Amino acid sequence: MLRKLATLALVGVLAAAMVGWALTITSSSRNVNLRDEEIVSDSASTVVLQGIEKATAAETAAGTTSPGVEADTTNPTITNGITEGNWVYKFQVTEAAATSWASGTQYKVTVYKRVGTDWTVAATLYFKNDTLPSPDAVEGVTVKVDLASTNTIPDGFSIHVEKVS
Questions:
Q1: Does residue 90 lie within any of the structural domains?
Q2: What is the span of the domain harbouring residue 107?
Q3: 57 burial via Cβ count (<10 Å: 0-12, 13-18, 19+)
Q4: Residue 83: how many CA atoms within 13 Å on its side-chain side?
Q5: Is residue 11 part of a domain?
Q6: What does each of the 165 residues of the chain score in pLDDT, given as a tens digit?
Q7: Do residues 107 and 45 make contact, with C-beta atoms less than 8 angstroms apart?
Q8: DSSP 8-state code for residue 6
Q9: DSSP string, 77-135
Q10: Residue 104 is assigned to a structural domain of this protein
Q11: Which one, of 51, 78, 81, 85, lies nearest residue 157 by Cα?
């Protein structure tokens, strides 16, 4: 009986501790730090994390210079160049709404990685929105960053999406 009471008390303490770690995100949140991933963007853009995957094939660099790759409804890829077998960090940057990006808009995406306490730039990539679809639709790009390693995944990431024109 005493063992059951002790077990129930421990479960109650754990449940209370878990409830205490709630995270509130509002529609005005523009900077969110979730464990080891930080996202900084303007209100016209949305970042959708897709995780880390092992590259099954090499990919040629695209969007490494300004003005970059044209964003569209198929979410074309911008990448620093992928080596088969390396770990790749992947996410999408899209318009917050179908008319959020004006024609002629250009963006810079800087991805930082952290190993231990050291932050370094993993990639700086560019995309643009020169033409608007008809009818209006949400446009974007898929971002793939080669992490330059077959066996080590960084401890953290920081994504900065910056409108440059």
A1: yes
A2: 32-163
A3: exposed
A4: 7
A5: no
A6: 444 444 434 334 333 333 333 334 444 444 444 447 788 888 999 999 999 999 999 999 999 999 999 999 999 999 999 999 999 999 999 999 998 999 999 999 999 999 989 999 999 999 999 988 878 899 999 999 999 999 999 999 999 999 999
A7: yes
A8: H
A9: EEES-B-TTSEEEEEEEEESSTTSSPTTEEEEEEEEEEETTEEEEEEEEEEEE-S--SS
A10: yes
A11: 51
pTM: 0.78
Domain total in the chain: 1
Residues 91 and 70 sit within 8 Å (Cβ to Cβ) = no
Give domain status of residue 51, yes or no. Answer: yes
CA distance 145 to 158: 12
What token pair was written down for 133? 């679809």
CA dihedral sign, ordered 33, 34, 35, 38: negative
